[in-house]
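Continuing the series of single-chain predictions for the mutant panel. This is the parent chain; the variants come on the following pages.
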Amino acid sequence: MTQFCIVIPVYNHHHKLAELLADLSIYAVPIIMVDDGSEPCSRQKIAAIVAQYDSLTLLTLPENLGKGGAVMAGLSHAYDAGFSHAIQIDADYQHDMQDVPAFMARSKQHPKALICGVPEYDQSVNKARYYARYLTHVWVWINTWSFDIADSMCGFRSYPLAATVKLIRRRKLGSRMNFDTEVLVRLYWDQVRIINLPTKVVYHEDVPSNFRAFKDNAGISWMHTKLFFGMLLRSPVMLYRKIFGHDYR
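Parent structure:
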């Protein structure tokens, strides 16, 4: 039986939080919000907003671990609480909350798969960042020997918690912006099916980005390097699967 919750990592993103939670409240799905060591002023605003919701659990991390660290804390908490699936949604209100039922429906149809959002951008997207994403897309396609993962950087997805938390507890994953991509590739290596689901994305000028150009790009580059050599080690198994077909869980 599928039991859903929503996991929201937040770091100083109180700007659109009230709107985000208002949109999500209509679904009556328990929410786990992870405050990733936000600055005191933002932390107070976050706490005041979430206090209005009885079905919301707020986890406050003592220090900033990075987006990946916050997501992993939320997913682990959800799994230990008995949920089977967690829908990850970023706190910056870029995503269309009307797509939540679609993610849940697809997870119910394919309970062992990871449902991954594929952004459909409007004119608000930063063109440089949009085209830079394709560097990661290409590396993901190389490291999985497939085009099965259409976009590995979208912050809107539905995780099957048993397989995901098993991976988190077995291997040290990137704790910052590199997490979103690394967890998809490694779950794919673990024979977890990835199902792509288009979703609209809008960028808000009044919401600051937590992406740190030098540090996060360096972390992403190192992640791709590790995944590439991991792919080489797995190449005999991957070749076997290509010849005889995938055996998804």
